[in-house]
Structure formats: structure tokens, C-alpha cells
Amino acid sequence: MFYYLFRYLDSLNLPGAGMFGYISFRSAAALITSLLISLLIGKRVIRYLQMKQVGEVVRDLSLEGQYRKQGTPTMGGLIILSSIVIPTLLFARPDNVYIILMLVTTVWLGFIGFVDDYIKIFKKNKSGLAGKFKIAGQIILGLIVGITLYLSDDAVVRKTRLLSPSDHVEYGQIVEMPDTLRGDRYITEDMKSTLTTIPFIKNNEFDYSWLIPFVPKEDRQPWGWIVFVVVTIFIVTAVSNGANLTDGLDGLATGTSAIIGVTLGILAYVSGNIIYASYLNIMYIPYTGELVVFAAAFIGATTGFLWYNSYPAQVFMGDTGSLAIGGIIAVLAIIIRKELLIPLLCGIFLAESVSVMLQVAWFKRTKRRTGTGKRIFLMAPLHHHYQLKGLTEPKIVTRFWIVAILLAVISVVTLKIR
Question: What are the domain boundaries of the chain?
Fold first, then answer.
């Protein structure tokens, strides 16, 4: 909203108003504002939750420090959601299709998580919202994201190719390529595309339509979008649930998400900047630079929440926060076509999810064969395994953060390592 206000003020020659035209300035403003909002409203929200006795109900898992968490206010994800939505509305361009998708993702999954927390706390039902309804909500969101990227005229990829004599050229389409010595001319085209990026590969573009070779080449594009939508649904569901499983120790999911947010902000910036995209030889996606403002608000919100969520936590985010931040990470990666980086970038979420799946699968298999179920880990998710091995909660969280930082650095480096 401020973008349009200060654009008008700039037309009146108000000194300094032109700064709001720069993504870097608005991103910095969004980060600071989200951080301040989370810090300022955090204490009030915690006090309100305590007054309403919105406390965590702890199961007996025989873990060190477990009962200290009993009664700690939960549903603190409301702090994160507010700290993301408000700065985004203030500093991002609300007419940008990608910003709209990110706001829908935040509110949609935040609402599903809120309903789950509400049932657990106020209805005294430890199971919360039935899993089928959570999955249905995530599938619907995946459909919304995938179909919007297919239908929106603004959701395009800009490609550069050699100009042929038969091309109809409009003003501004011809670009200079400094690495050519033959005097060839190149043309830019905005196109609907199911292309994405594969890390560590020299020719790093992959088209989802390649997954359906049995369809004639001229008919693949629509079917490729169906594959893209299915992949989108899977990624949204997987990452959202992965973040939910990771939210088991003080500050673990929050800090990890902030690290991932920084990485996605960097990737969104270079993907939405034609100069950096050309230099790095990556896909240029017009209008995604605006996502840096959203990513900055996300970083500020999670960092500010960490002020209260770090050990010993004064508040937990609950499913209100964990489902939302997982969905935000997934959708942001999909929009900038870096979703195939998620297993690397979100390695912590992946390890937590895989540990649960392996534990359950192995227990059922051994119980069916021998009558007594056996376990691979002392307890799943993975962070509880290390707790039972004797590591303290702060040490586990700090080490997981270090691993997350390492994975984030490698993810950024993939822009050049092919």
C-alpha cells in the first residue's frame, strides 16, 4: 500500500519518496517492521494466551525437561502470521500475483492450523483436526497455487532465443548478448512454461512435460501442467507436514525456517533480476523480485518469534504457525522454480519426516513378522532420538541450526556449481 502512496508523493517531487520504488528498501522496511511487530505484540499475545489458559498439553514421553513445557502458551503462530501479513500488505505490491498467492498460503494454512489447535485446547481433543481434513486443505492449496500459475497472465518465464527472419519483433524485445562474436540478434519472449531448475546440472532446466513421453510432443504442454499441479500438491503437503514434525524443541522449527527464508529470499532476488539471472545463467521470472519483500517479512517474523520461542520457550507456535511456515516455504520455492532444491535446502524437515516414516514402517514390518515391533531410532521424530541419547535440548537445536546453515549455503552455491 505504501508503494502506491509514495509513488504518488514522488510524482509531487517529495524528497525521499522515490526510495519506495526500490525492492531492496521495501524489503529492509518489511523485515524491520515484521521484527518489531513480533517483538511488540509477542508479550501481549503470550499474556492473553496465559489468561485464557491456552497451554500446551504434554504427553508422557519420558524426555528430559518435558514437564517444564506443561502449560506453556501455544497458538503463538498468530504472532508469526500477523508479523508476516501486515508488513507484506504495507510494503509489497498487492497487485502482484505472487504476493497474492503467498498471502493466501499464509492465511489458508494458518487457519487450518488454528482450527487444529483450537480443537486440541478448547475442545480438549488431543487428536485435534482429523488428518484427512488437514490433507484436504493442503491439497486444495496446492490446486490453487498450481492452477493460478497456469492461468495467470503475469505468471510467466522470460526466455531468450536466437532471432529468426520470420519473427515478429516488438519494441524492446531484441536484446544484446555480449558473449556473441557473430553479430547474432536475440529476442526475449514471455511464455507459460512448466520448466523448473535442477541443481548441480550444467543444462539445469527440466520440463515436467518430459515425464509424459507417451503423449505426442505437440500435446504435451497441457498435460505437463497437470503433472506440475500434482507435484505442487505433493510439495506443499510434504513441506508443511515436515515443518510441523520439526516443531518439537524450543526454537528448532523457528530458527530453521528463518535460515531457509534467507536462502529463498536470495534465490527470489536473483530469479527476479534480469541482470543477475543472465549472469548466473538461471531462469528469469519477471515480477518475482517482489517476493523478496515477503521473504523479508517472513525472516523478521520468525526471528522475532524466536525471541520468545528460544530455550526455555515462553510460547509455542502450535500448528497455527508450523503448518503455515512449511506451506510458505514450499509455495515460495515453487513460484521461483527452485522446488527441486527443497530436499537439500529443507534437509532438516526431510530428515525429521523420513525418521518418522522409517520408524513406523519398520515397527509395523517387524511386528507383522515377529509379533514384536522393533524401532530404528530410540524415538521419532529425529530430535527426540538425540534427546534420549543424552544431548540437551539447546545443544540439539544449535547443532540442527548449524546443519541448516550449511545446507542453505550449499543451496545458494548451486547457482554456480553445475
Answer: 2-156+199-341, 158-191
